[in-house]
Records
---
Amino acid sequence: MKYDHLLDNKKRIHFIGIGGSGMCPLAEILMSEGFEIQGSDMNEGETLDKIKGYGIPVFMGHRAENIEGAELIVYSAAVKPENPERKAAEEKGIPCIERSVMLGIVSRRYNRSIAIAGTHGKTSTTGMLTQVLIGAGFDPSAIIGGKLPFINGNSYVGHSDILVCEACEYVDTFLELTPFISVILNVDADHLDYFKNLDNIKKSFNTFAKQTTGALVLNGDDANTLDAVKDVNLVKITYGLSDKNDYYAANISADKGVHESFDLMRRGEKLCTINLMVPGKHNIYNALAAAATAHYLGANAKEIAENLGKFGGVHRRFEILGNPGGITVADDFAHHPTELKATLNAAMKMGFNKVWAVFQPHTFSRTAMLLDDFAEALQIPHEAIISEILPVRETNTYNIYSKDLGAKVPGSKCIDTFEDITEYVTTHAKEGDLILTMGGGNVYMCANMILAKLKEMYSEEK
């Protein structure tokens, strides 16, 4: 690719926003290859602590002098052109590339790069596959969109020719990749502020698939996925719940929806029984994708079953935070109606007396364009609380508000602030209930506030 030469004869690379979840893994991998890494960031945090622990110099705050001595600049998508470090680099003629471009460059340094794409489930599936491959002795490198407890982080530097990474479709960033294996989990209407319609999303996935050099692993039950790749001339490996697929789940059972269990089948032959620790039909699909990919790479059935059975989830994917007073508090990244439905349907089967969903809508465009779908999803739990919409990168040109969503969800409550939400749910939730915060933004802060309040309440009763 046209940027791959940028690493030639370079020694020192400066990362603007090095503490970002997508930046830290790239810095780790490049450091392991012998590059001198430095960076800057605005905020302290766990990821930044990890970076500093490697002895990587980190400047707090963005200033022109921070880039002194750098030969290449990598910046995160959140860093604007007017950033002083970007401006200084351009004035000095130092090449500057966005994180997704560097991910593409790094991925091509591995003979067997595996890109996990799809509208939903990328982080969980990437975590599952990483855990299976490490457990099976493949020693891959990995770049994951969330913290995987198994590796105590969102990255892993191995010593093989395998790299597992997420491939995000937003603004076509995944088109920077040319994977050996592309896994497409699903294709759904999302990021419509950019794509405008589902047809355009399919076209991007088609281009992504055609950039793959080895094989496609596909959700054979997802019509949009199959439509997107119908003209792609590559090895295609399908998975799903139907026996029309190469790999499929049979004899599915569940313990109150908590522990999904199924037989992994391949073209009519039983390979193994997989007992998952993570709930929901969506995680059966994720596990099938990971299993099919691992098996194609050479992992055996025993290794697949054993390591998928140990997978306990990733950060912010139905993450159980605590159970003070018998009230379970959990947090989930779901921010699209399909994700909400999958997670809430799983939660409703888990035997709680009442499921409280605290949802933070993520972007005005997504809320406006998928309003009826969000309303349908939020009618699944016993109680739905809706916070104000998180703008992220947008202004409210859509004239959309939380109350517009709440009006379509009978019995729901629109409560703007995390403080007021915390007060309401901790006052009304009872022993045996689940409080589940959901959203792609900072609603996890609300989960932490709820947990702290409940701990305080129930410690006072003792």
Note: The chain has a mean pLDDT of 92.
---
Amino acid sequence: MKYALAIHGAPYSSQAAEHALEFIEALLLCDHSVERVFFFHEGAYHGLNGQVPAQTQHVTDLQPRWAALRTQNIELAVCIASGIKRGVVDAVEQQRYDLPSATLMSDFTLVGLGQLIAAIEGADRYIEFPA
């Protein structure tokens, strides 16, 4: 089966992403596919470059796990509207808004809401992980 997912929770104030990552990893082990993970609302912070995870016993650095999924051709798509208002911008938006630097991590892309709709239409299942 083909899945599309949306994550609404911020990286370190919600367990939405950890649950989504565990779900995706289980799907891949069962030979299912995930075309796109869409980061919406506070979830846009997952694409923000320069995050430092909490220093705890529990390994909370989500970035290497996202990067591993990206190498499996899973698109990591940050909602452009959610991202821009949270300071998550690529080089194009940096120039457009005359900002000092691009802040989008290289494994992520900024996309419009139409990409989420296209992913939902092309998927057998759509799952949301709320904040």
Note: DSSP finds five helices and five strands in the chain.
---
Amino acid sequence: MILQNNTELAAEEFDGETVLIDIHRGVYFNLRGAATLLWQAFALPRTEDAVLDTLLAQLHEAKRDELTDALARMREEKLLLPVTSVAQASAPFTFAPTAYVPPMVDAFSDLADLIAIDPVHEVDAGAGWPVRPESFPAVD
């Protein structure tokens, strides 16, 4: 399967971790360990197998099942989306040598209400701001 990062997510890297925010669902994600490398790898469209093979070849002690599980979670959470074309063959995925740290993908919805009323969202001229969008999922 060919995948690429979901470009509708806001993403920022901090000290080897990647934080992603899905403003449409009000969920933010923390990627740690090899999950950050997976996110970096799919900045361009690439096949899952090509990325997995690269990581397994270059990361000592990397475990395919852990990487595969992280990829599945990232697809499930719509962090990675299927696409129809791959990056140019001349653009292989490379990364700085690092020790293998198992991939961790954590999702949080505790700030969903704040994300929903954030001023980056469209403001209803009649209702003003802040207004929770009707399409926004309920948070328990």
Note: The first helix runs from residue 34 to 41.
---
Amino acid sequence: MHAVRRLVDLRPGGTATVVSLAAERGLRARLEALGLRPGQTVQVLRRGWWSGPLHIRVGMTELMVRRRDAACVALAA
């Protein structure tokens, strides 16, 4: 059985495809509005210190995502 890869686990420079969002409705809608939808490619550019946010790129958009929100984004293995 394979463990689910999550956006929060992706290293800087790593790229993956979003498979699903396991979040409550409000957070899910926010993440989708930012471009994090199944099938989209996401790249981690930087990770904040300690428990800081992730600086990511989705398509042509760059954004910051809290680690607890990034933990809700499942990636293709």
Note: Residues 8 and 58 are 14 Å apart (CA to CA).
